[in-house]
Amino acid sequence: MSSPQRADRTSPASDRAVTSLRERKKAKTRRTIQEQALRLFAEQGYDATTVEQIAEAAEVSPSTFFRYFPTKEDAVTQDDYDPLLMEAIKAQPPDLPPLTTLRAAFRTAFEAMEPEELDRMLSRTKLTTSVPALRARTMEGLYSTIEMLAGAVAERAGRDPRSPAVRTLAGAVMGVMLPAMFTWVEHDGRIPLPVLLDEALGYLEAGLPI
């Protein structure tokens, strides 16, 4: 006969529930900090806004801010899009060509975003294209995204992610996406970003005809 479960022990299901609740709270805090940062940057300007002001607006301490964002720049440049994109890539049929796979994955990932999230992305993109310090950080992020895409393509194709062919493909994808992002900013988001990205990747898939 098994002994009754001790009251101070939690079941695996309870552990998962607690962990899920903590993760949701962390995600909410992170989102609130970033939202307040973007609001203050728009109202006061990036350089004139301090971490202390952002923390006060988000109702957290400066130390809490730094737990989520190591620097003020990170409150603009960090996002959660890469995991979503990776999931979309993995969900594509295995027989699709690499470029078709990426185009379909980007379409899936961006079309699933809520309007509020796209608004935050637009605000962040405006800042990264206008503030020199943020442009430099954005370039670091681009390198990381290219490596991520190269890894995903290589895994599906059974290739070396460091091979010139794989890296060139990943770089070309990012290369055609950047002008689409610039167009999105120029039109203040009036043209849907998923439409612009899909059009750009379609040009690349067709061999960039002019």
Automatic annotation (TrEMBL):
Feature: DNA-binding region: 50-69
Pfam families (alphabetical): TetR_C_14 (PF17754), TetR_N (PF00440)
Domain of life: Bacteria
Region named Disordered: 1-29
Record's keyword terms, sorted: DNA-binding, Transcription, Transcription regulation
Gene3D superfamilies xrefs: Homeodomain-like, Tetracycline Repressor, domain 2
Keyword NADP belongs to the record: no
UniProt cross-references to SUPFAM superfamilies, sorted A to Z: Homeodomain-like
Coiled coil (UniProt feature): none
Domain HTH tetR-type, chain residue ranges per copy: 27-87
PANTHER family named in the record: HTH-TYPE TRANSCRIPTIONAL REGULATOR RUTR, MYCOFACTOCIN BIOSYNTHESIS TRANSCRIPTIONAL REGULATOR MFTR-RELATED
Record-given protein name: TetR family transcriptional regulator
